[in-house]
From TrEMBL:
<feature type="domain" description="Ssl1-like">
    <location>
        <begin position="86"/>
        <end position="178"/>
    </location>
</feature>
<dbReference type="GO" id="GO:0005675">
    <property type="term" value="C:transcription factor TFIIH holo complex"/>
</dbReference>
<dbReference type="GO" id="GO:0006289">
    <property type="term" value="P:nucleotide-excision repair"/>
</dbReference>
<protein>
    <submittedName>
        <fullName>General transcription factor IIH subunit 2</fullName>
    </submittedName>
</protein>
<dbReference type="GO" id="GO:0006357">
    <property type="term" value="P:regulation of transcription by RNA polymerase II"/>
</dbReference>
<dbReference type="InterPro" id="IPR036465">
    <property type="entry name" value="vWFA_dom_sf"/>
</dbReference>
<dbReference type="InterPro" id="IPR007198">
    <property type="entry name" value="Ssl1-like"/>
</dbReference>
<dbReference type="Pfam" id="PF04056">
    <property type="entry name" value="Ssl1"/>
</dbReference>
Length: 179
């Protein structure tokens, strides 16, 4: 009976201590408008040509590094993956509902995907296929060089879109290269 009361007392003390610590942490943060504001304009610097792009790239790189350090630890980075991306280059991709047109917008988003893919899967392989006129063609072989894939996507964005997309032929081509 005495041991049971002792454990209840210890549990109560730890619970109260946790509540005090959490309250202190919340008090330290305060409201956003009560804390010191960030002077983001001081981080931007012009280069010799008057461009701010280098500063923006530096800020984005630091944010990406911070995000990598805060990443969840249960991600399996050592897993070897083989992925083929199939890009639709049919006539439907020449619509201008996404500016300047669908293919160019998709290629730009795929560039970001390729960078993130290799950041998260450093030992994996990626290949690019595109499909138009009911045929599938290989743009890049499976490889671990993101720069090569990004360059291929940039040249693909300037191609003319024509014909129809063929998922079956794209899957067959990907399967034949994965064997």
């Amino acid at each position: 009976m005495l041991a049971c009361n002792l454990f209840d007392m210890i549990d109560r003390v730890f619970t109260e201590a946790e509540a005090v610590i959490m309250a202190a942490e919340e008090d330290d943060k305060g409201y956003r408008w009560e804390t010191e504001y960030e002077k983001t304009w001081e981080e931007l610097r012009e280069d010799e040509s008057g461009s701010l792009q280098a500063s923006v790239d530096s800020i984005l790189h630091r944010a990406k590094r911070r995000q990598l350090l805060e990443r969840v630890t249960n991600v399996r980075l050592g897993m070897m993956r083989h992925v083929f991306l199939v890009v639709d280059a049919s006539s439907a991709m020449s619509d201008q509902d996404l500016k300047p047109w669908r293919l160019k917008a998709s290629a730009k988003l795929l560039e970001y995907f390729v960078e993130e893919y290799f950041d998260q899967n450093p030992i994996s392989q990626l290949g690019l296929l595109f499909s138009q006129n009911k045929r599938a063609e290989k743009i890049t072989e499976l490889g671990g060089n993101p720069r090569r894939h990004i360059n291929a996507l940039q040249t693909l964005a300037n191609k003319t879109c024509q014909g129809e997309f063929s998922l079956q032929n794209s899957l067959d081509l990907a399967l034949s290269h994965l064997r």
